[in-house]
Specification:
This protein is α+β, with helices and mostly antiparallel strands. The protein is 59% helix and 13% strand.
Length: 468
């Protein structure tokens, strides 16, 4: 009776301890997210609640061609496919780690023939016999100190982090495609403006040549007109080269080498969406890279428990059941059954402080991961603020540049009219032409910068606000 009670107690102790796990339980470091309620560049208005974010933020530009290119990149590009393969790898690693929580069962079968020497008083005698075996064996480590569960916790966090990494890749890929596409459309707009200038300058050079032959214009006017035409023609060639390179980059990003897109024009440049007033800083929690940084922290926290559990005894249960006989025909008879049950206890006695040093090492790694997480949050907050400032300032500059472009076009018309009437030298026309061309290109470049800043804002937020 006493022996039975001791046996039950010995089994109850590890089963009771199996509910605990060494090492700290994870809790989110709220100090890492101690940020202002809203962004400094945002307006003072604060919405009642955070706006819902859309993962398909590029659709807010209202450009069907851009939508198609981003969708193609997210399904066909090597980066997207590689990220999907990394998710499969992480899931497989997680299954391997979780398998340690279950007993391992092995089947075995064997046939052997042995000779045994039996010495006698007369002479040694050899005894030959056959041994046939078949059976099952199992081995199972009781997770008394939570080592296996902490390892599973860390692997699960890493698998989740791989998914966040894939989302980060998708976010970066969509941003890169959007930037490349918007750059291509901006080059198209610059090409259109420069072609108009070349066409106008070609006509102006022809008229100046005719006026020179008629004795109205001077040779200086002719040379100035020809020189301006050559300069604008060279600029046009540089822009055409830039468009070809931009188209090649876009083809690489979407996984379609040799991609060709029809030219756009100044009027088809997308209009940047305006961010809602008072964007709250809590939107940062939707960024996949910050979620990945937190899963790294969870995994580092779990590794402390694994290292601490290595300081304590490990308890392993083993068992086997099978059959063994000399004759194969007797293998499944009643007397052929064999079995065994056992338990093993392993306790580190002396390892020169290696295990405690391992605990100190993973604890220090956890502290480093925590500081990396804090820095990631603060960097993300800065990126959103920078993007908001760029969006706002480029928007204000666009209004001024629009007025400058209209004024330059009117000035060019007046300069041509005065030159045709003989009131102004041809130099005034050249100056007005250059001013008009520069004003148009400056407006296009600012629109591109504004669009790019909006893409940066979407990327910094981890998504885009849903349109009303």
């Amino acid at each position: 009776m006493i022996r039975s009670r001791l046996t039950h107690l010995a089994l109850a102790i590890p089963l009771t301890l199996a509910g605990c796990a060494l090492g700290p339980d994870y809790s989110r470091p709220t100090a890492a997210l101690a940020l202002p309620d809203s962004y400094g560049a945002a307006t003072t208005a604060t919405p009642a609640e955070a706006p819902a974010l859309s993962s398909r933020w590029w659709t807010l530009f209202g450009d069907h061609q851009l939508d198609q290119l981003v969708d193609q990149a997210l399904t066909s590009s090597p980066d997207a496919r590689s990220a999907a393969a990394r998710i499969e790898e992480a899931d497989a690693v997680l299954r391997q780690v979780d398998a340690a929580l279950l007993p391992q069962v092995d089947a075995s079968a064997g046939v052997s023939r042995a000779r045994t020497i039996l010495p006698t008083s007369i002479e040694p005698t050899g005894l030959l016999r056959n041994i046939n075996r078949i059976g099952l064996s199992t081995s199972f480590e009781l997770d008394v100190w939570g080592k296996l569960r902490r390892a599973s916790e860390g692997a699960r966090a890493q698998a989740l982090g791989t998914r966040y990494t894939s989302e980060t890749v998708a976010l970066s890929l969509a941003a890169s495609v959007s930037q490349a596409y918007l750059n291509l459309r901006a080059i198209d707009a610059q090409l259109l403006a420069t072609r108009d200038t070349v066409s106008s300058q070609t006509e102006s050079a022809r008229l100046t040549q005719a006026r020179f032959k008629g004795g109205i214009a001077s040779q200086l006017d002719v040379e100035q007109a020809e020189g301006a035409l050559a300069s604008y023609t060279a600029a046009l060639a540089q822009l055409e080269k830039s468009r070809g390179l931009a188209e090649n980059l876009l083809g690489l990003l979407v996984g379609q080498p040799g991609l060709k897109l029809a030219p756009g024009d100044l009027k088809t440049l997308p209009v940047p969406p305006v961010p809602p007033a008072g964007l709250p800083s809590s939107l940062l929690e939707s960024r996949p890279d910050l979620r990945k940084a937190e899963t790294d922290l969870i995994a580092a926290n779990a590794r402390i428990g694994v290292a601490k559990a290595a300081l304590f005894p490990s308890l392993t249960l083993t068992g086997s059941f099978g059959r063994e006989s000399r004759e194969l025909s007797d293998l499944f008879s009643g007397n052929a059954a064999v079995w065994s049950v056992g338990a093993g206890l392993t306790q580190p006695i002396f390892e020169g402080g290696r295990l405690r040093a391992q605990v100190d090492a993973v604890t220090a790694q956890q502290k480093q991961t925590l500081e990396s997480y804090r820095k990631s949050v603060q960097t993300a907050f800065k990126e959103v603020n920078d993007a908001l400032i760029s969006v706002r300032q480029n928007g204000e500059a666009e209004d001024a540049l629009s007025r400058a472009m209209s004024a330059a076009q009117r000035g060019l018309q007046l300069a041509r009219a005065r030159y045709d009437s003989g009131y102004s030298p041809y130099l005034d026309v050249l100056t007005a032409q250059r001013t008009a061309n520069e004003a148009t290109l400056a407006w296009v470049q600012n629109r591109q910068a504004r669009l790019g800043a909006t893409v940066d804002l979407f990327k910094a937020l981890g998504g885009g606000w849903k349109g009303s």
